[in-house]
Design a protein that fits this description.
10-stranded antiparallel beta sheet, binds zinc ion, alpha+beta, 12 helices, 3-stranded mixed beta sheet, HIT family, subunit A
């Protein structure tokens, strides 16, 4: 697998020269405010990022999606936006509304629905080709603002707390091994999460497929079981964090007045950086709000133990 790091650095340089909207939005990250909220055994970084309001508040019901031109299709993208082809099916683009200092959107060449089944091997290939990035997938009902167009995102390594927390033996514990692949389960992390580690991409995809099928049985009415996934590659192995979901948006998203917190949890939030597009939410959100939102939208640790039992 080729390393795309230099190509991506060149892409950012070129886009910052030619595309003022992207350049300005990345420059504005210097002014983004962040505060750390300690929640018992883990910390969450809350980021006040008004540029993300369009994504956080995106209407993703079928009727709203049909009524708008797809912003990920090549014909509708901004004229200034360039990409790097990846394999036969994907284009690597810079995300013009960043959360990360280096934030990519990796879009499928064709307008096909957001589905991880069949796309998971591409996700592992991207992680290997972009070792400076965390690749993440938001399911069609788990934070993707274009559920009708297959895409991943990627952000520079070293930003999401989940990367560091993976090495904390009090939080992330080995649950089993199958060949060279390991399954790890999280404890005291406020959200049911599992991690697959290993150097064999086919074996990792095999374990993922089993978990996916088992989880799909519990949500038969959905286009796919609700998931967020984060993957990265280093020292010859993949780390794949899988977060099964039960709810798209928490009750506080729909509340009025003081009760309202406009936060639409996706991979980045569950990875430890809560994005609040509204300043009032940034100022008021508490540890109790954060743990409440995580437990509302994710499965419990007990449910994850059941889901992964005897899967290896
Ligand atoms: Zn499209």
């Amino acid at each position: 697998m080729n390393d795309y790091s230099q190509k991506v650095r060149d892409l950012f340089d070129g886009q910052f020269r030619e595309w003022s909207l992207a350049r300005d939005n990345y420059r504005q990250l210097d002014d983004v405010r962040v505060r750390k909220v300690s929640c018992n055994r883990f910390d969450i970084a809350v980021q006040f990022n008004p540029g993300r309001i369009t994504s956080s508040a995106a209407k993703v019901d079928a009727r709203s999606i049909e009524a708008r031109p797809c912003f990920l299709c090549a014909k509708n993208r901004p004229q200034e936006q360039n990409g790097i082809p990846f394999g036969d099916d994907y284009q690597i683009l810079i995300n013009p509304f960043p959360i990360f200092r280096r934030h990519l959107t990796i879009v499928c060449e064709s307008h096909s629905p957001q589905r991880i089944s069949g796309s998971f091997p591409a996700m592992l290939s991207l992680a290997e080709a972009l070792p400076e990035f965390v690749i993440f997938y938001n399911g069609p009902q788990c934070g993707a603002s274009a559920p009708d167009h297959m895409h991943f995102q990627a952000g520079n390594r070293g930003f999401l707390p989940v990367e560091k927390d993976t090495g904390n033996p009090r939080l992330c514990k080995k649950a089993g091994t199958a060949g060279t692949v390991e399954l790890w389960l999280w404890e005291g992390y406020g959200r049911g999460m599992m991690t697959i580690k290993g150097a064999d991409s086919k074996a990792i995809a095999g374990i993922f497929g089993k978990i996916y099928e088992r989880f799909a049985l519990t949500q038969p009415e959905r286009p796919e079981p609700m998931l967020n996934i984060l993957a990265y590659h280093g020292n010859g192995q993949w780390n794949v964090h899988i977060i099964p979901r039960r709810v798209h948006r928490p009750a506080c998203y729909f509340a009025e007045g003081d009760e309202k917190i406009l936060l639409s949890p996706a991979s980045v939030d569950i990875g430890g950086v809560f994005i609040t597009p509204r300043e009032e939410d940034f100022n008021k959100i508490t540890a109790a709000d954060i743990t409440g939102i995580l437990s509302e939208v994710c499965l419990s640790e007990e449910e994850l133990r059941t889901l992964t039992a005897r899967v290896l």
